[in-house]
Design goal:
Strand content: 5-15%
CATH architecture of the largest domain: 3-Layer(aba) Sandwich
Strand order of the largest sheet: 1-3-2-4-5-6
Radius of gyration: 28 Å
Distance between the termini: 56 Å
Number of strands: 6
Structural class: alpha/beta
Bound molecules: fe (ii) ion
Number of helices: 17
Largest sheet: 6 strands, mixed
CATH superfamily of the largest domain: Response regulator
Number of domains: 2
Shape: elongated
Length: about 375
Amino acid sequence: MKSIGSNHTVRSQNIEGYSLGLSQEHLMLEDTQAASSWMKTCNQDSLVSKTLQPKASKVNGFDLDPPKVLVVDDHAASRLTAVALLGMEGYEVIEADSGSIVVGLVRQKQPDLILLDVMMPGMDGFEVCQLLKQDEQTRLIPVIFITALNDRRSRIRGIEVGGDDFLTKPFDRVELAARVKSLVRQKRLNEDLDHAEQVLFSIAMSIESRDPNTGDHCERLVKLGQAFGEYLNLSRYQIRDLMWGGYLHDIGKVGIPDAVLLKKGKLTPEDWQIMQQHVLIGEKICQPLRSMQGVIPIIRHHHERWDGSGYPDKLKGDEIPYLAQIFQLIDIYDALTSERPYKEALTTQEALSVMLEEADSGWRNPKLMQQFAEFIRFFTKNRE
Ligand SMILES: [Fe+2]
């Protein structure tokens, strides 16, 4: 069988209603039966599929855009069975007959789900799944492993590499349809969440561009946050929250009027009161998103001071969330070492001595400030 890549796309009528009237016996399709019936509609040499347009405006309860499923199996009969069954359920189906082409294909076609055979020559299903789950672009795509019945070892390995579900051969049409439908639905929900996050990041970036004084402040905070987080041996999630904090800490400035945010010259006490609201507005914006819970303490508390003289809650010492303490040092350091229309950029040494003085006067966690100074010296030395 020649490699068929991605040019084999199947779309057919949704006949879910029809399947409900069939007995379990009818629904069990042997590979060969389904394959041979499918072959009747295909040109076997070129595997050019017959494409049927869905009549209904909804496919399996999904909106106009039919979910895309990638079926990866080197065994033609088994692959064609899955293709036929999914095609009948109204999915758009893409096929691949070897593991090695899957990663590229997934990036290109962005399927909603992958049905992945375990045993394949070259790259096996486990390796493929591991690669996909490590990649930020593809990690949300659910993977269903196709295994032999009672293959316990494969199931354990499948879970280890991030597989989402398992199906055994021969396929049970109802089971296949149910699992695919539920995982595709879940994936679309996750995507919406991801989109919501993206909207927040876009808002944050637009605020940065609204304030011409800050330049690439956020990008620098993200890089410095990651490096300092790694230096402090923080967990992967804490580092992620610090990096997100780089983008989102001032998102609440979206609610601050230009007259205050962009005011040239000194802010009045009333202006300051308005300006300080940005931490509360930011918290409110991010609160509904579960994925933002780790970054919210940074947003709310990045202007607290160690001696309790900061805002909004006048927290003292370790009452201030640790990530907010860390983030604050990064934020201040970057502000000091960056040029602004109203000030020159300080050198590394000058900025550190200002911050160490502030720590001595009680504004910052002294131990953390020492660690930060060590980190910056180490970081800048390694960059030279
Ligand atoms: Fe702020």
